[in-house]
Design brief:
mainly beta; three-stranded antiparallel beta sheet; 0% helix
Length: 80
Amino acid sequence: YQINFQDFNAPLESYEYSLSVPSGLTAFDSENPTAPYDYKLISQGIQIKQGSISPPLTITVANTTLSTTASFTIVTNPSP
């Protein structure tokens, strides 16, 4: 799964962003790319492995310049 965010005001205004990922998830390590991981930060977004979404997973994107946030919850349906 992938969540992308974009600053539509650029280049007129520039904002700083931060991502909040639940604790216990392992980030991709570019120094050790063969190590297991749950998510990977990409340009303007995050990729999350499907197997890492249990229980539902909430990612929060914060605009630290304006002090606003948007949260995304990913839920997978169990196989019947």
